[in-house]
Amino acid sequence: MQFDKDLQSLQEMRDAVEKAKAAQQVYLDFSQEQVDRIVERVAEAAYSKALELAKMAVEETRMGVVEHKKIKNEVGSRAVYESIKNEKTVGIVHEDRANKVVEVASPFGVVAGIIPTTNPTSTAIFKTLISLKTRNALVVSPHPRAMNCTVEALKICSRAAVEAGAPEGLIGWISNPSMEATNELMKHKDVNLILATGGSGLVRAAYSSGKPAYGVGPGNVPVYIEKTAKVDQAVKMIVDSKTFDNGTICATEQAIVVDLNIQQMAIRELKNNGAYFLNSEEKAKMEKVISPIPKKLNPNIVGQNAVKIAEMAGITVPSDTRILVAEETKVAKDVPFSIEKLAPIFPLYTAKNEEQARELCLSLLNLGGRGHSLSLHTNDDAVAKTFALEMPVSRLMVNTLSSVGAVGGTTGLKPSFTLGCGSFGGNITSDNVTARHLLNIKRMAYGTKEVTIPKPSVSFTSASSDIKDHQEVQEIVNEVMNQLKPQGPIDSAAISEMVNQALQKYQTN
User: Fold this and answer.
1) Could you list the active site residues?
2) Which GO molecular-function terms appear in the entry (predicted)?
């Protein structure tokens, strides 16, 4: 009997979660040494298949550059492993003897991993390593346009883990993903955490699932070439970064802002590095290709090279063209060059001074990149610190390639393929997400300070007693009044005082 594809996808997801939960319960008893051996073997296996997986990803998604995806896979495997290999993630992970506080690591349980089409294999490897390192299980929902290469990466990791002693089922996946199965995975009762990397709609679904979730927002990254920058070096880095894997990393530069007094130098260097400047007629054609539906990005340009995108617009460019550039002055959703493009296309904005440059960068971030990243080229440390203080971003790369620098390739940032945007972008963290984000930390605290709890004050007790005595006196007065049934007016206050005096004499005797 042939089952409906969506039903098959749902059943596969449920089976994977069930197996992952059972395997994770076994994995809980593994020592730090056992965990570390498994993580190392998985990293080695993934690294050895970096090129093979890169070829599969480009062939299946029709996006990016094989050589660049190979580098991504190497960062996602070896660089990530090197950054987490010495972390304690099992049992007591820290002891503060001075303050008598002991910290104990505890995993979340089953992690749901959502993988994007732009970085399908490197993200799968990365999420596998940080999950295994923290004794979590992982169940992955690949992007439908990248399911084969993603599942192959997971199979490589899973085989290596089992060969190193991990329980079967610890790494699971949906081989024929559907939107319904992905949504149900995020809401599944046995899923304890969501790692969502993908479009804004998917990230919103992760946050609304009712589960703890790490989701990341879009990255409409401005790059500012400030007047003190070494323009030739800055431009080369920017073009190299923008063309890395055809711009598919969300931290890639999306718009150039340049100071007026170095504008011509920047344009010259851009042309020297393979930029083709569009005239007004060509710019209009390109706008329709970038955003054929107003305010929406054309997904067909994502991860394509500049020559192919020019052909899509009916524009003839030299065969060695690396990026397409158009001068721009406006920033808005209906201004195609100003939105996030994930392709080698740049708007060029000219700022008359640093203040205007900050305003332009802020406008671009507010358009769709708040909290993510900003790139800056300058030799003025004061300028860099001003941007760091004022810009609503979680990472600011200075004098480096933004795409590779943000994920930890050319900077001291933690290697990661899930880049938090903080509260600026509606995320729970502004960190480069890594192993420590997949742990609960329990704290055992011994008493270190003596404290004396004071008894209730005497004055408070006396006041309460006075109130009670007054109530009793009033009751006696009322009873006397009822017995006497006087004909004329009675001074109740005088009687009350007499009874009160009588009670006092009685209590002292």
Assistant:
1) 250
2) acetaldehyde dehydrogenase (acetylating) activity
